[in-house]
Predict the structure.
Amino acid sequence: MEKLRRTDPAAPEVAAALEGRDPQKTGLGTLVMALKPGDGSAREQAASCQRVLGGCANLAREYATKRYRSNVVNWGMLPFVAPEVEGWNIQPGDRLYIPGIRALLEGDGAEIQATLLQNGQQRQVTLTLPNLTREERDIILAGCLINYYAQ
């Protein structure tokens, strides 16, 4: 859907997915939510596969390892943390609208307000990007570590 948004922002499918938001300023991607991701032998492959399948963020109560969190960043995805995420009961098909994420990454903030869209209801939630370094921010803004080095 993100590819279609970039090539044909006026497409009806894009309008439906964005629910009235500006297609020139709003990206689309998938989100993986887990309570404590990143333990096990496939940490790098998990992040790369997620990105290839349209992933743009992870949402966790906490990360099991710094290595997995780093792999998420190196693939250009956002490593969000929300200690209360377990109570949100996120299900497939739920959406998270995060306005101002580029500005947050360009600055030095660590917290952002988002809207969780579930079952026709909206709820304000707080997401954090704790301890995100300037270099990690720049990697995410570049799209991935390879793009960052190419710049």
